[in-house]
Specification:
Blueprint (H helix, E strand, L loop, with lengths): L1 H7 L4 H12 L4 H16 L2 H15 L9 E6 L5 E3 H8 L6 H10 L2 E3 L2 E2 L6 E3 L3 E6 L3 E9 L2
Parallel strand pairs: 1-7
Antiparallel strand pairs: 2-5, 3-4, 3-6, 6-7
Helix pairs in contact: 3-4, 5-6
Length: about 150
């Protein structure tokens, strides 16, 4: 981390040395990393973008849903009353690469629907339902199951 400060930060080397000592004395290194990240984001965007990026990172680390989660519409096959969860995860939302990966992730306990862990790979989502799907800690999609027009 210190090499990145030296290479990327505009701070004087004395300030960086003080940060090193503070971390050695018990300051949380994550807080110091936030300072560097904020400086870099502010340089290329602005201070507000840096604050927003940090807030989003903290929210995700506390398992909060992203605020700007777009809704994905998944159409059921003609005449079908539901959609397979594995298909919704793979083809519909692209949260996983394939149905096989969807089944593996479900078996691992890495899939959630509306915050609830899913254990059944054969689960089907009914037409008209709106759910938030999650795979692992950082992949989310809000889905609406609809009839094909």
């Amino acid at each position: 981390m210190w090499r990145y400060f030296e290479l990327l930060s505009f701070r004087p080397l004395g300030d960086i040395a003080r940060l090193k000592r503070a971390v050695a004395d018990g300051r949380n290194p994550r807080d110091v990393k936030f300072e560097l990240a904020s400086e870099i984001v502010a340089r290329f965007h602005d201070r507000r973008a840096a604050e927003q990026a940090q807030a989003e990172f903290v929210a995700l680390s506390h398992k909060a849903l992203p605020e700007d989660l777009p809704e994905v519409v998944i159409f059921a096959e003609m005449g079908a009353a539901d959609v397979a969860l594995t298909a919704a995860l793979a083809a519909g939302t692209q949260l996983v690469a394939s149905g096989s990966e969807a089944r593996r992730k479900i078996a691992e306990g890495a899939v959630r629907i509306d915050g609830q862990k899913v254990a059944d790979a054969a689960l089907r989502l009914p037409v008209g339902a709106v759910h938030t799907l999650q795979v692992g800690p950082r992949r989310f999609a809000r889905v609406r199951i609809d009839k094909r027009p």
